[in-house]
Design brief:
The chain has about 260 residues and is α/β, with parallel strands linked by helices. About 25% of the residues lie in helices and about 25% in strands.
């Protein structure tokens, strides 16, 4: 199997710079059909709408919906012969186990797995602490992400990567200078979300990791996705879907005793 036809989506919106960067990196050799949200639908996870409006776009189709809407509409109706789903390139990293379920980019890849279609989710780490999202990004800054994406699409099928896993979660550093090396990683399990009552009936959430994304302060060891991008590497995490089921003797006992109540 090869990836002759690619369904490209994202959660930043169909006109995002990152989506265009990976599109342009692949379009000369692959049939790339974009099915992406009309506007920014970041951090919506696997939210699914009841129905969506679809309109033609120069890159394919613009969907007034979520990334998961795009994958379902794409694989079941608009591009049913797609060999691969590519989600990205997201403006901002998707790192750590706790982020995977809330990321629209990663959720698009997860949805593809339920269709039996391999997927690659690709994101770019933008330095800048808590204010990283204010950065105006240029196409050239996605060079590492686009290069890594093209390399994986070109080679992963022949190498048998997708015979063992469902999707790849790729995170690249922002491009600056030489090409970045690639490291196979696992998602970090560090978690530090906090909540604070504001005294007026509201609660504010904070993810302190963005302030710790430096070589000296990041709390993750070598081998994790977050450590890799801080070290200037392209992180590639090979992941499976759905959630695993573990044998549990205690629960077995509870179920056996249920009828005795």
């Amino acid at each position: 199997m090869s990836a002759d036809r690619i369904l490209l989506t994202n959660d930043d919106g169909i006109d995002a710079v990152g989506l265009r960067a990976v599109h342009d990196a692949l379009a000369d050799e692959y049939d790339v059909v974009t099915v992406a949200p009309t506007d920014d639908r970041s951090s919506v996870g696997r939210t699914l709408s009841d129905d969506v409006t679809v309109s033609d776009h120069e890159l394919g189709y613009a969907v007034d919906g979520t990334p998961v809407d795009c994958v379902v509409a794409g694989l079941d109706e608009l591009v049913p012969d797609a060999d691969l789903v590519l989600a990205g390139c997201n403006e901002g990293a998707n790192l750590g186990s706790y982020v995977l379920g809330r990321s629209g980019t990663v959720s698009a890849a997860v949805e593809a797995a339920f269709f039996g279609v391999p997927a690659v989710a690709v994101s770019m780490y933008v330095p800048g602490g808590d204010d990283w999202w204010k950065t105006d990004l240029e196409p050239a800054q996605f060079e590492h992400a686009a290069r890594a994406t093209r390399y994986l699409v070109d080679n992963a099928f022949e190498a048998g990567v997708f015979e063992e896993i469902d999707y790849l979660n790729v995170n690249a550093p922002i491009a600056a200078g030489d090409s970045a090396p690639m490291r196979v990683t696992h998602p970090s399990d560090w978690y530090g979300m906090t909540a604070e009552h504001d005294g007026n009936g509201g609660v504010t959430f904070d993810d302190p990791i963005w302030g710790r994304m430096t070589e000296t302060d990041v709390p993750d060891p070598v081998g994790t996705d977050r450590r890799a991008v801080v070290d200037g590497e392209v992180s590639v995490s090979p992941l499976t879907v759905p959630h695993g089921v573990a044998s549990n003797g205690a629960l077995d006992g509870l179920a056996e005793r249920y009828g005795d109540q």
